[in-house]
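note to self: dont lose this again. the chain is below, predicted strucutre after it. 398 aa total, dont forget to put it in the shared folder this time
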Amino acid sequence: MTSRFSELVTSKRIVVCVGSGGVGKTTTAAAIAMYAARAGRRALVITIDPAKRLANSLGLAGLGHDIQQVSDELLAAAGRRATGGALFAMMLDQKRAFDEVVEQYATNPEAIARILANPVYAQISGALAGSQEYAALAKLYDLDKTGDWDLIVVDTPPTAHALDFLDAPQKLTAAIDSPAIDWFRKLRQSGRRRRWSVAGRTGAYILKRISKFVGSQFLDDLGVFFTEFSDILGGFRERAEAVYALLRDPGVGFVLVTSPEPMAVDEALFFHARLLASQMPFSAFVVNRVHPDRAIAGTADEIDGKLARHPGIAALGLDDAERRAAVDALLANHAGIQELAFADARSIDRLREACGDGAALRAVPYFEQDVHDVAGLAHIGEFLFERGGRGTAAVSAS
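---
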């Protein structure tokens, strides 16, 4: 029987991984995409975080806006895979993606050139509220529409930015529709001679003061930019509506990645509530770095007795007091780890209560070393898709 988590790679077109910084979100996204490729699907993993971990884990020298394929030899080294599967990766250049949206909706090549060359655009395209997140969503929409991928896995920025990621379409259109921007458009349309009368007494005073610092050419650039940019606003709105609908499509699944730390769990639960309120399809929690619950059988006396009879321990030449001190230290260390395991289990119980029907929960154990290659990603995939969290402090809710 297919587990609910496995349905992410068998029935979804897009998986969006979100979470706070440092919880293993990038690694989780890469592991999901790689498992899909090994299952015979053409999978693409997109990172928006500029961290280099994803490229290193996939055996790539670096990642950029252009899509790269992970070598078949590298995938083969990670273990057996089905025929037809392939893994691709890219790191989204959000400024370039925004330029692509402008190029798509501008009315003619001359308008495109003027907008992209406008010095105001160079500043605003990166700073306008929601612009870069909007560009990322627009790129995701375009990639999905190509039909080239069976599965696209998106590794979003940390949670605060991921919330912006969801709000980006509305934020951008609201910013462009603001009264201040409309005011600059009217100034542009009025011409230089009538600018001061259109601005009004207060506005004229402000403009004259501003022009002393930035020059009248800058004000002209503002007017040109906002006038020509408004011409493509209809296309932006259209794309925003399509993207917003895409995020609610049943072919999309959101995976909330967290650690068992209480603050990280609080953030994951906050985002989970936000997804439900927005009617976006929540699919699973992934809890990384979980301390395993591994009880020691036997009392200190029983363990000490077994060690006394063990040939290897006897060869160390420890006397009774030294051996018993080592046993006591071992048990004290284990008790500390068990406390962490119990705390992790309580955190995971909070997440399990929020899962409800139809969602999954996966726990990935704490590893001594960071994942840095495809073999490590394959190992993570085992806990996500095959072991179902067995051997950790929690098991799948599916």
